[in-house]
Amino acid sequence: MKTFKLIVLIGVSLFHFSCSDDLLDLDPISEMNENEFYETEEDFQLAVNAAYETLHIHYGPEGGLSYTEQLSDEATMFRVAGSISDRQAFKDYNLRPDNTVVQAIWDDSFIALNRINTVLTRLESVDLDENVESVFTAEMRFLRGLYYFNLVRMFGPLPLLDRTVSVQESYQILRSPENEVYDLVISDLEYAAANLPLRSETEIEGQATKGAAKGILGKVYLALGDNNAAQDILMEVISSGEYELIDNYENLWDIENENTEEGVFEIQYLGGVGNPYSDYWTAFAPFENFSITRAAGGMNMVTEDLWEAYEEGDPRREASINEGYYDTSGTWIPILFPKKWEDRTVIDRYGSEFSENNFIVLRYADILLMYAEAANDPEYLNMVRRRVGLPEYGTPGYPSEEYPTLKLAIAHERHVELALEFHRWFDLKRLDLAIPVISEAKDVTITEEDLLLPIPQSVRDQNPEIAQNPGY
Amino acid sequence: METKRNLKYYFFLIGFLLMLPMNAQEVIEVSGQVTSADDGMPLPGVNVRTRGGSDGTVTDFDGNYTVNANSDATLIFSYLGFETTEVPVNGRTSINVSMAADNEQLSEIVVVGYGTVRKSDLTGAVSSISAGQIQERSSLNVMQSLGGQVAGVQVQQTQGAPGFAPTVKIRGTSTITAGTSPLYVIDGYPMEDFDMSLINPQNIESIEILKDASSAAIYGSKGANGVVMVTTKRGTTGKTQVNVSYEKGVQQVVRKVGMMDAQEYIQYYIDAHNNSWEVAGGNASDPNDVRPPEYRIPPEFLSNPKQFEGSDWQDVLFRDAPMDNVNVSVSGGNENTRVFLSGGFVSQNGIVDRSKFDRYTIRSNVTHDISSAVQVGLNLSFTNIESKEYGTEGKAGAVSLALQSSPIFPVYNENGNLGFIDPNSEWNRFVPYGLQLWHPYALTREIDNKTKRFNSLGSAFVSYNFLENFTFRTNLNASVNNRRYSMYQNAGQRYGYSNINPAVAEDNTSYTYNWLIENTLNYEKTFGDHSLNVLLGYSLQKEEFEESLMTAGEFPNDMVHTLNAGRPNTASSFASEWGMISYIGRVNYSFLNQYLFTGTIRRDGSSRFGADNQWGYFPSASVAWKVSEQDFIRDTPWISSLKVRASYGQTGNNLIPNYGSIGLLGQTQYVYGGNVVQGLYQSTISNPDLKWEKTGQLDIGLNAGLFNNRIYFEADYYNSITRDLLLNQPVPTVTGFTEQLTNIGEVRNRGFEFLLTTRNLVNDFKWDTNFNLTLNRNEVLSLGPNDSPIYINNWGTTKTEVGEPIANYYGYIFDGVFLNQEEIENYPHHPSTRPGDPRVRDVNEDGTIDEDDRTIIGNAQPDFNLGLTNNFSYANFDFSFILQASVGNELLNSQTRYNKWYDGGRNGYSAITDYYVSEENPGDGETFKPYLNYPGLQRQFSDFWVEDGSYLRIANLRLGYTLSESALERTPFNTLRFYANVDNLYVFTDYLGYDPENGILSGALNAGNDYGAYPVPRTITVGMNLGF
Question: Is the keyword RNA-binding assigned to this protein (chain A) (predicted)?
Fold first, then answer.
């Protein structure tokens, strides 16, 4: 009897042992994990989509590009929500390395670059269809070139990454000189230009195209002062016949009329609850207006300088800038704020708006003006002026007292044509107008050193080998 | 109503039991003398009673007694300080008894991991709490009753909602990011993050706290935060004992927060507006029509402010809240079977309007001897809790918002609605003026929330004794926890909120299933002077968690609150699980009962640990020397017992994320061709090396009993270093990630614990004192490769850096206010500074005020904790009180951001009424000038936010009256006791909020952050215990 009981007990305990392996190898039930991903074309398409999504942050209304408007003479900020002083430091040229917005711009950028590099690195170890792989590669290199181009103009020399790195490796990565960054930018965009489809060949609105890669490459060459290369590559875009100016300037931001033949590269949004909606309209609406939007960011309020920059009768002013709004009590509140991404019909649910508006990174008008600048050819400037019915450069009606040279005329045209579209600060820097224009507009004394953002303090806390930009 | 019905039932039960026939036997008179075995002196005041009977008496001054007893009865002699002695009568009429001095304190049995030991044989640091110390306390969660009672254990009641689990910290904070909760072991069943409000405190026989690592090491990777062993009551052989208890009580706010009344508020509002308008270039005398809207002041504020009687929103929010508590237990058994059955019902309303906690508990503990070798047992408990949780939300909760609301409004407007945004109310005229109202009822009556929890906890065992010295035991444990939460918010909340929100509803369900199978083999033998006890075991444990979350909106009206009436807008579900395999071993060895050694080892494998680090070993060793067993001490009469101990052990903290080692994918969306497409990206970095945090702790202790144990003293020194701290280590963002969960960093806790128990008076009037003192010093030793400090921003900022305790408050220091322009010019200042603005200290003395002038401005960890319990008894009365103190801790008062300066129409503390007005009228010199906006550093995190959290609390006061056995002689009862109990009578503190223990966040980095936490109430109860 005793022996029998003992056997039963031992038997029971052995049974326990036999099921124990299952206890330790438990994969997440409700969370997708990397263990079985980055294998099929479908996996990579999902990863590519997630890389495109970083455009929503990089070019978002609270992203790094948007803050360059604060640094320019176009936009300012009054009352806002959140960490006010860190945000106002942009318009005040009072940036410090511990500025949390600068930190977020940096972090978001490298998180975005990692999503891109993860696709590129993982593609090395799988065997997909060659065409599929080259298009994925070209799309990712397009985004990487675009991001590095933006970042090098904001931060100067940068940690240069053409693949993913481990935590250990990351401590070895310091800032590479600007020319090396530009080398990567150019090789990425050249690869993209060679391997991406033409606009007319892609059925998918929003996909990067050959024209987009060439257009950005033109901008890169301009920034580097290589006008000949810029002229060549931009002419390829112009002569491709893929793009033209649309008739009505204000229709560019009509949510019923997105992805027009003028949009060379457009960031896609879809309005509605649960969708990847756009929030430029609410972010750029006056803070706590409570009447035109429920949520309101107060970001990028328009300066008087921009308002004044428009010529008499330029319809682009009214298409670009709101002069104020009626508050809940019906009182007119005068305040200049952006109109381009206006979406007054948006459904307001759950305390916020879910707008539709795309954001156009590169427009054909920009291509034309860049070409005019590279080729020193007023005709391409005048193509842009003709659309809005303004007197052509070189004709008697043109305000040549104010813009006596073609260079100044193009700068002026870019200012009003591309107002608030995140180009102005880069344009001022490229055209060497930044210091005088910004000093006057913002009533601050700035130097060349203020034209780069600080490297975030946390970056240097983690790795003191990383140099700070001069002046910080 | 419910309570009444329950009561009826209980009285019926009592009545039924009263009809049971009583046995009649031959009664004889027994007399004799009781003397002390030590010196032969007579002992007066010895309690003499018969076992299981109702007769009893006490010895007179000469130690003589006379008692009536059945001829076959057993007499029980009990006297404090002496061993209880039992003598069978056997028909004798004269019985003299010699009582031996008791080492009661040392002979009691203490529950430790996987077994029990005599307290005198303990080699580690274990504190023991008996049923008597908790049973008449009103707390629904027994841990609440332990505050101030145990050295080394800090019990912080962060929120006072009924049943709300306090934060329990044993020997400091040994982690930065992992869980800080101790392991709870309920009748041998280890449970992580267990909610003790599921256990009826009346069912608890004892609580042991395993404080040092050598005691906790047997729980391996679960033991680093200490272990709380809870043992529920068992049946005892003999006459069936039925106990009924009923108590009734009330809860109250202990200290209201001093807020401005309507008149003070109006002046404050006017000043803030005028001050800002003057800065903007206006004059205080300007009428509204020349001011921009934000500077306008309601005309009545100036013309007739007295018309505003207003409301004290705290009076609206809080109430005196009744409670009822009924318990019935039956305990009994025979040689083979012992049973303890209990049922309890408690209904406690909370002091916050509509908050409520109802709990039903049933417990059945049964053990049965199948044979002399085989024993089986089953403990089963069911707990059902229905609660309404209002006021614990912290930020945006009713408590915080009541303090922010403008005090000028009536409780109801003329339409019977709650707020001034009612478009049909005359109060609507105030809308343009930026006043604030979040009416308490808008949150408590216009939002209907319910939480229902059902827990069943079962532990079954079989133990088999074979070959004399071996015992094999199998435990099967399971716990099922169901939680349902439903919420419905009425459309518009009767205009009582800051804006008009549509109706929304929420419905969440969760289910947790945990099981444990454990087998142990025990060998026990004494060889001459050597005695040996060896334990081997292994266990398997798994937990599965599932939840679903749903919300709906667009309800046609507020009639139906379930989601079917609206339109669902979100639905989600989530599941996770963990598993664990453990092997345990322990050797207890003693030589001559003088030298004691314990060695343990545990090997844990956990699904939470990374693939390359799945198993860990947790060893410990401890030794003790009973010095008092030495001859030279034995001859020292005033030393009753003396023991020195030393131990070292390693424990782990496995409260790390379930899947922290695995790189997860994040989900996102983009748009192609006008269609939403999904995207996936790597959102966390994998870390296959991820493992437990490891604590190594040295403990040196002393236990001493002096003068017949009239004085008992316990002291411990410990030094504990936790390595491999789990940190989200900031990593260079070039990796694509900002942080990686890594085992890195070290923290040390070292300290002293003292316990002193004295029996000051032991005769008719008895007086015992229990004093304990805890000092813990916490220091971060390492934070990874660059020791980068960790900053956490939750309204205030904490900085965790090497060489400092975890989570120092970090901000500016305000040295009062600048009285005039001259003072400003003579001291570094922020460019916006004007007279009346704070003088921000130039900490680094570089002549400018900037972010580098932030410094350490406090810490939530106390310098020391004190507890003092005094018990008095005389005749049938007993009285006790508990004082509890915490000294040297600071507290982050996050209400500061709204209540300590003018902020958007919100009310302010009455403590800031004396703000700076002008150089001639500078106020208290500390409170800066109110404005609508503060361009300077006023609102930045500073010592203005950090308050002294030291306190002295009258934690408990109890008065009892126990009827003597003679008084109960002619009744069927054998015990009858009445008592009155007050928990948290008062707290002495300078804190401006409700209670310096308040906090709304959990985790080591967020300790001491009060943002409208639920005040800890005073609870007054009166009760009755009846036994038969």
Answer: no
